[in-house]
Amino acid sequence: MVLRDRPGCRRSAIAGLATNARTVVAMSTPRFVLHYAPGSRAFRILWLLEEARVPYDLVVYDLQKGTHKDSAYLALNPDGKVPALLDRGPRGDWSVIVTESAAISTYLADVCSEAALAPAPTSPDRGPYLTWLVYCSAALEPAFADFMFPRQKEVPRSAVGWPSYDATLERVEHALERGPWLLGDNFTAADVMLGAMLQWLSAWGKLPPRAPLDRYLASLKTREGLVRAQAKEAEISGRLA
């Protein structure tokens, strides 16, 4: 299906549905194209684009129908996973593909510097920011996978590159003590990456009650970019149902 939309608008004008192909959501020659599926990790990039308030196209895939495994998408991302980002460049003459959520978030926050979603490379906050930007993918997600799907044989802790699930949550909790965000008063792309994961864990009932995390999740709900992204995802999900 093809939808035309503008960032920050709640409604989309939907032109039609394609039952056996990927869905293209388009705007007037925006710089960025997000390859996306509702209910996937691509949501955090949708949220980040809304926080940045930049125009973008969406190419929507239906995970249930497996449209993210078609040959056209596999040419972009051989892993067949979403998200993937296409950057057409400031003049529209690029064709840069970025995959992996942490890489996309880093890229977007730096390219869209006017949105102030990343500390400058010369800022002392840059190091902590990069740490938290990748912490979700590098530590929290694999730790949660181990928690949910224990291995038949215990693996030596020295053989894995992440701590236990409880330990990751304790580290996040400690980082939020100076809140309201991971870097104190400054909301960044790191909050989108980690915050989206914590929201998902909470919705699934897998996030133990911890006061700092509860306060953080409540603060995230006030973000207008999140509200817009959630509305778009709900609308697209409804169209695919």
Walk me through what this model shows.
The chain is 43% helix and 12% strand. The chain is an alpha/beta fold. It folds into two domains: 2-117 and 227-240, Glutaredoxin, CATH 3.40.30.10; 126-224, Glutathione S-transferase Yfyf (Class Pi), Chain A, domain 2 (Up-down Bundle). The chain has a seven-stranded mixed β-sheet with strand order 2-1-3-5-4-6-7, covered by helices on one side. Residues 1-21 have low confidence and may be disordered.
Low-confidence stretches: 1-21
Shape: globular
Name the CATH class of the largest domain. Alpha Beta
**Nearest-integer average pLDDT:** 90
Second-tier CATH architecture of the largest domain: 3-Layer(aba) Sandwich
CATH superfamily of the largest domain: Glutaredoxin
Radius of gyration: 18 Å
Q: What's the helix count?
A: 8
Number of beta strands: 7
Q: Which structural class matches the secondary elements?
A: alpha/beta
The largest sheet is: 7 strands, mixed
